[in-house]
Write a structure and sequence with these properties.
The protein is mainly beta. It is 13% helix and 38% strand. The chain has 2 domains: 3-162, Hotdog Thioesterase (Thiol Ester Dehydrase, Chain A); 183-299, no CATH class. The chain has helices at 3-11, 30-40, 79-89, 183-190, and strands spanning 17-23, 73-76, 94-104, 114-123, 127-128, 132-145, 148-162, 195-199, 205-206, 221-225, 229-238, 250-257, 262-265, 267-268, 280-287, 293-299. The strands form 3 sheets. Strands 1, 2, 3, 4, 5, 6 and 7 form a 7-stranded antiparallel sheet that branches. Strands 13-12-11-15-16-14 form a 6-stranded mixed sheet, with no helix packed on it.
C-alpha cells in the first residue's frame, strides 16, 4: 500500500471511540493524593485538610487501569487496537510516548467518582524522526464527574518503523587529561618510560605527578625512571556500569612499584578473576590507537 492509501486508511479512524463509559477504579481519595505529593515533593497546603483538592496533574491517575488494563470499568472500544494493528502491518512496529496535554475545568476532591470517554482525535501524515518513520496518534479523553466535565487529557504516541542504524565505529579509550603538571609523565610514556618525580630537597619519590613535594613542600624536582617491577597491592572488578571501549567485567589494579609508589592500571593477558593481591607484575606499554599508549602490567610467571 502506498503512503496516500495508508494515510487515508488511518484517517478513517479519526473520531472513532477508543474507550466508552469508562470509570475510575477508585474514587478520588486522600491516600493517593498524599502519595502523589510525597513523590513529587509538593507541599502545597491546598492538597491536605478537610477542604483538600487533588493536584490537577493527577487527572490521568484517576483513570489509569494499572496492571488491570485501560480504565477500571466500562467498554473498551476496538478501534484503537485496530488502528495500531494497521500500523504494525505497515511496518510501524515500535512505539514511544511523545507528549500529553491536559485542560482542567474544575478541581477534583476526595470522594469524586470519575468517568471518561476516549476518542481517536488525530492521526498524522507520515513523519520522519531520528527514531524512524511513522505516524503520530493522538487520543483525547474527557473526564467527568457525573455529567460535569472536569478535565481533558490528550495523549500522543509515535508508532514508527525503527530507523536502520549504521554500525558504530569502535569506541576509543578515553584520552588522558594532559596539563603542565603531568606533561612530562606522558612524554615519558610515549617513549616507553615510566617516570616518577623525585623531590630535589628530600629525595622523596611521588606518583601521580604533583607541582610540589607531599613530604616537605619543595617545588623543585627531577625524575627517576621506574624499573617496572611491582606487585598488585589491591584491585576491584568492574561489572557495571559499562563504559565505552571497555568490556566488563574487568579488573582495575593498584600496583605498588618496587620504588614504593603506587599506580592505577590494568593487568593484561589474564582473566579478571585470576588477579590476586600480592601477585608479582611487570610493566609493559600497550598501544591502543595511533594517539594513545598506556602503561599496563602483566603477571610475572616462573
Amino acid at each position: 500500500m502506498d503512503d496516500d492509501g495508508l494515510h487515508a486508511r488511518l484517517k478513517a479512524y479519526e473520531g472513532r471511540p477508543a474507550a466508552v463509559a469508562g470509570t475510575g477504579r477508585d474514587p478520588v481519595n486522600a491516600p493517593m493524593i498524599r502519595h502523589w505529593c510525597e513523590a513529587m515533593g509538593d507541599g502545597n497546603p491546598a492538597y491536605t485538610g478537610p477542604d483538600a483538592i487533588a493536584p490537577p496533574t493527577m487527572l490521568q491517575a484517576w483513570i489509569m487501569g494499572g496492571l488491570g488494563g485501560l480504565g477500571g470499568h466500562g467498554g473498551r472500544a476496538p478501534a484503537y487496537e485496530e488502528l495500531l494493528a494497521v500500523l504494525d502491518e505497515a511496518g510501524c512496529t515500535a512505539v514511544v510516548a511523545t507528549d500529553c496535554e491536559q485542560e482542567y475545568v474544575r478541581p477534583l476532591r476526595p470522594g469524586d467518582e470519575v468517568a471518561f470517554d476516549t476518542v481517536i482525535e488525530s492521526v498524522s501524515e507520515r513523519k520522519t524522526t531520528k527514531l524512524g518513520t511513522g505516524h503520530f496518534v493522538t487520543t483525547r479523553t474527557d473526564v467527568r464527574v457525573g455529567p460535569e466535565l472536569v478535565g481533558t487529557h490528550r495523549f500522543r504516541i509515535l508508532k514508527y518503523a525503527p530507523a536502520r542504524r549504521r554500525a558504530a565505529p569502535p569506541e576509543r579509550r578515553p584520552r588522558p587529561v594532559v596539563n603542565r603538571d603531568n606533561a612530562g609523565f606522558w612524554e615519558g610514556v610515549r617513549e616507553h618510560r615510566l617516570l616518577l618525580q623525585r623531590c630535589a630537597s628530600c629525595a622523596a619519590l611521588r606518583f601521580p605527578w604533583l607541582p610540589g613535594c607531599q613530604s616537605c613542600g619543595c617545588p623543585e624536582w627531577d625524575t627517576v625512571e621506574a624499573s617496572g617491577e611491582g606487585t598488585v597491592f589491591s584491585y576491584v572488578v568492574l561489572h557495571h556500569p559499562p563504559f565505552p571501549a571497555f568490556e566488563p567485567p574487568y579488573a582495575v589494579v593498584l600496583v605498588e612499584l618496587a620504588e614504593g609508589v603506587r599506580i592505577v592500571s590494568d593487568v593484561v593477558g589474564m582473566p579478571y578473576d585470576k588477579v590476586r593481591i600480592g601477585m608479582p607484575v611487570r610493566l609493559e606499554f600497550r598501544r591502543y590507537d595511533d594517539e594513545l599508549t598506556l602503561p599496563v602490567f602483566r603477571e610475572v610467571t616462573a
